[in-house]
Amino acid sequence: MHAWPASEVPALPGKGRDLRIHDTATGGRVTLAPGPVARIYVCGITPYDATHMGHAATYNAFDLVQRVWLDTKRQVHYVQNVTDVDDPLLERALRDGIDWVGLAERETALFREDMTALRMLPPQHYIGAVEAIPGIVPLVERLRDSGAAYELDGDIYFSVEADPHFGQVSNYDTELMRHLSAERGGDPDRPGKKNPLDPMLWMAAREGEPSWDGGSLGPGRPGWHIECVAIALDHLGMGFDVQGGGSDLIFPHHEMGASHAQTLTGEFPMAKAYVHAGMVALHGEKMSKSKGNLVFVSKLRRDGVDPAAIRLALLSHRYRDDWEWTDQVLETAVERLGRWRAAVSRPDGPSADALVEELREALSDDLDTPTALAAVDRWAELQTAGGGTDESAPGLVSRAVDALLGVAL
């Protein structure tokens, strides 16, 4: 599966700072100091609907992580999956009377278009669950053969008790885990399971649903968590720098994925930092496909909204915070974009050297984008007041905003 084209990231004078970021597993900030190549895995979409603001906010956060690393003169090895077969996708295709493969291809293509428009840097490896199945089956077989997984009516379940570190990503109590498991695709009440929290690794073929050759597992399709584990281990290995996604993935997805990988390899942890973006609400409720309270990137683009303004709207909120999308959020972003573009269109202006360092410091401090935007606002105000004669300043500001914030002026 191919990703989307990369926008050029301008080089800036000097060198950026190492990223200090909140780690869900420890509950505090960690300083990430990768080697020459930083490794990041971000969980991708289940393509049964278009890209909404919740998606965009999540991928914007991890685009910033990449930009901070690139500014430190590192390379970035970024991997993302597409869950192109899963119950929600099959249910939507059945509801709409369309082929599930065609639905997945259509929505994945639209996602690529949205990511390109928003100048999100693409992954080096963009892998669909279906194409990952040949690598998933041996992992499930290994877990089963080692006693870390078991069969129940043809389905294969992972035993969470096989991982001594289970629970150390979310740090949730059992009651909350069980509630979230039921809410987010698990089946804690299924009779016969060794532990209600045990997640499915391989679903035996169901009548009327797609299935693949599972070798000794029999025909079926993979569970949600093992999909990401197989892709991450194949392309990044254990101990990669950041496992990323929305905060709704903390449990069960990232918790279970970590346990799968740690049990398979005997190594801990799967990732050096578990980083999660907050949820975006509309009319007081989290945006979700099930509720249908969505603001789509593609719809805004069709309505003539500049993608740079959409990105500024996302940047106006700290990535870890839950926040609400409103017309005012977008209007403020459109006005800000206009001010910034007017400021950099002049032939000279106040020196921008200090601004570049302010942006670097703000972003290295747990991706503090509101502080970064405020710094550019101040420079634009000085520019409007005629506060400088540095001919290189407007160009440097434009390059810095592009390189570090992903906003093309």
List the helices and strands and how they pair.
Elements: E1 19-23, E2 28-32, E3 37-42, H1 53-71, E4 75-82, H2 87-96, H3 100-117, E5 125-128, H4 129-145, E6 149-152, E7 155-158, H5 174-183, E8 200-204, E9 220-222, H6 224-235, E10 240-246, H7 250-265, E11 271-277, E12 280-282, E13 285-286, H8 297-302, H9 307-315, E14 323-324, H10 327-344, H11 353-364, H12 369-384, H13 393-405
Parallel strand pairs: 3-4, 3-10, 4-5, 10-11, 12-14
Antiparallel strand pairs: 1-2, 6-7, 7-8, 8-9, 12-13
Helix pairs in contact: 4-6, 6-7, 9-10, 10-12, 11-12, 11-13
Order of SSEs: EEEHEHHEHEEHEEHEHEEEHHEHHHH
- Fourth-level CATH superfamily of the largest domain: HUPs
Beta-strand share of residues? 15-25%
Number of helices: 13
What's the level 1 CATH class of the largest domain?
Answer: Alpha Beta
